[in-house]
Specification:
The structure is a single chain. This protein is 17% helix and 24% strand. The protein folds into two domains: 9-45; 75-179, Rieske Iron-sulfur Protein (3-layer Sandwich), CATH 2.102.10. The protein is built from two helices and eleven strands, in the order H-H-E-E-E-E-E-E-E-E-E-E-E. It is α+β, with helices and mostly antiparallel strands. The protein starts with 8 loop residues before the first helix and ends with a strand.
């Protein structure tokens, strides 16, 4: 057999990269670019877990440690006024809360388990962070996975939720229910 090489051996070795060929260098570049892309994607999709109270830093509306009642103003203006002088911001009107039931106002579920006794709980379900959607027959219900909570103490009464809704102390101030 005849050798069909047309260039001298020294010229062939001078044109080859030191890393052993273009195939492995392309693989290294593509692998690095892929890793960088995946890292950026994970950073963009991640959540802030810096600890309780980090709510709002990344624009999210779920918090394991909701702000105290009245810290965001008068319950989206639904209670008719704001601060009435004696306590925190008005969360609801006494007349709006049915005995044995409750309402969802602003960031809270405000209940009246017994005549003249008012309670306020976070409206964020402790199971998956959905907002509860109704209060009926002594039960607060989350629509996402049908978790239910007691209007008396916010404790879970059914569904997958295992932790009680966080409570915020409230009191009656004139016609308003305010943060205590």
């Amino acid at each position: 057999m005849t050798d069909v090489r047309t260039r001298p051996e020294a010229e062939i070795t001078a044109h080859q990269p030191a890393c052993g060929g273009t195939g492995s260098s392309r693989r290294v570049v593509l692998a690095g670019a892929s890793a960088l892309g995946v890292g950026c994607l994970l950073a963009a999709c991640g959540t802030d877990t810096a600890g309780a109270g980090s709510n709002g830093a990344n624009g999210g509306d779920f918090s394991n440690n909701p702000a105290p009642a009245g810290s965001k103003g008068p319950g989206d203006g639904e209670a008719g006024g704001g601060d009435s002088g004696g306590g925190g911001a008005a969360l609801a009107l006494v007349a709006d809360i049915p005995e044995g039931g409750g309402v969802i106002k602003g960031d809270y579920v405000i209940t009246q388990p017994a005549s003249g006794t008012f309670k306020a709980f976070s409206k964020v379900c402790t199971h998956a962070g959905c907002d509860v959607s109704k209060v009926d027959a002594g039960v607060i219900t989350c629509p996402c996975h049908n978790s239910t909570f007691s209007i008396e103490d916010g404790s879970p009464t059914g569904g997958p939720a295992k932790k009680a809704l966080p409570e915020t102390k409230v009191k009656v101030d004139g016609d308003n229910i305010v943060a205590a």
